[in-house]
């Protein structure tokens, strides 16, 4: 028997229990792996609270890395002993060992450690699709990213800067402002002391930006629309402050014929080829040194409830790992 973090009812971090679970042999198309590191992501809190409803009881965690210990029938491109990583359903990375669909994992190249992979798979592939596919960031673009000191934010700042963009980020403290500046951001706005929409207009000489990347949600939605130039794109990819409220679609016309999209990593990596290509682009940009990965905090896997509490209290920055 191995241990895992499970919930039996939605709610706060206190619902997370360190329990014994049984992991069987892999079935057709599956692998069994021993977890070496699991990534902590804000979406994990949505699964825990029931904002995103899933059948219970539930083992949490979308992202992780580990070593393959067994393969099922039909698995030909992954072998026992391979180091692999993933950031997709089915959930279950908060476990010492688990089963996983073989077509949802990628083999790690030399030079990418298990801990690096577990820290970047979900956040890094999210960054990849944001800068390369949802809106293709080009040299000379000025873009706005909310929560610049978060896990995706620190990767985004570096990647967008490497693509030649001028990058504006919002943060909630001076410490986070300093961190964001060290990760590619040209301009930092402290949303607690400044009106970010007014400041963006100042920085762009009233032109606005062609794209806003917003993982915050409710608190930044209205102001973000005011930051966009005509025909601009609002990319709402998360809701850390709560879901975006209903809005009148005519608002987009009045603010300049704006576009809105609500992308997810699930869709952008649904096809095996897209998953492999996204991971390769991520590993390449990290290996090149253009994007550096830092893990400011780690927790024992059994202490995942504490990690969730700190994440929701905005006490963490960058990537966080849970270690078995």
Written overview of the protein:
- The protein has 324 residues and is an alpha/beta fold.
- It folds into 2 domains: 173 residues, Quinone Oxidoreductase, Chain A, domain 1, CATH 3.90.180; 124 residues, Rossmann fold.
- The chain is 30% helix and 26% strand.
- It has 10 helices and 16 strands.
- The strands form 3 sheets. Strands 3, 5, 6, 7, 8, 15 and 16 form a 7-stranded mixed β-sheet that branches. A 6-stranded parallel β-sheet has the order 11-10-9-12-13-14, sandwiched between helices.
- α2 packs across α9 and α5 packs parallel to α6.
- The longest helix is centred in the middle third of the chain and has 21 residues.
- It is globular.
- The mean pLDDT is 95.
- Keywords: NADP, Oxidoreductase.
């Amino acid at each position: 028997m191995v241990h895992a973090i499970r919930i039996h009812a939605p709610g706060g971090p206190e619902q997370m229990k360190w329990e014994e679970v049984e992991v069987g042999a892999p079935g057709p198309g599956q692998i069994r792996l021993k977890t070496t590191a699991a990534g902590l992501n804000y979406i994990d809190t949505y699964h825990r609270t029931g904002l995103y409803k899933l059948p219970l009881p539930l083992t949490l965690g979308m992202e992780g890395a580990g070593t393959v210990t067994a393969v099922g029938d039909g698995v030909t491109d992954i072998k026992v002993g391979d180091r692999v990583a993933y950031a997709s359903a089915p959930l279950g990375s908060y476990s010492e060992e688990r089963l996983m669909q073989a077509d949802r994992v990628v083999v790690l190249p030399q030079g990418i450690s298990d801990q690096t992979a577990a820290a970047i798979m979900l956040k890094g592939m999210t960054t990849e699709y944001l800068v390369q596919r949802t809106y293709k960031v080009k040299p000379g673009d000025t873009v706005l990213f909310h929560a610049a000191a978060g896990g995706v934010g620190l990767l985004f700042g570096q990647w967008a800067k490497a693509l030649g963009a001028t990058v504006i980020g919002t943060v909630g403290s001076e410490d986070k402002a300093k961190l964001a500046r060290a990760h590619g951001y040209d301009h930092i706005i402290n949303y607690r002391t400044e009106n970010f929409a007014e400041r963006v207009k100042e920085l762009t000489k009233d032109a606005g930006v062609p794209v806003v990347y917003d993982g915050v949600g409710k608190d930044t939605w209205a102001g973000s629309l005011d930051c966009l130039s005509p025909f601009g794109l609002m990319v709402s990819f998360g809701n850390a402050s709560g879901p975006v409220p209903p809005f009148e679609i005519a608002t987009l016309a009045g603010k300049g014929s704006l576009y809105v999209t609500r992308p997810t990593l699930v869709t952008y990596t649904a096809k095996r080829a897209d998953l492999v290509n996204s991971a390769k682009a991520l590993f390449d940009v990290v290996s090149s040194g253009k994007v550096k990965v830092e893990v400011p905090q780690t927790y024992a896997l059994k202490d995942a409830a504490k990690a969730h509490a700190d994440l929701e209290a905005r006490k963490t920055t960058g990537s966080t790992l849970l270690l078995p």
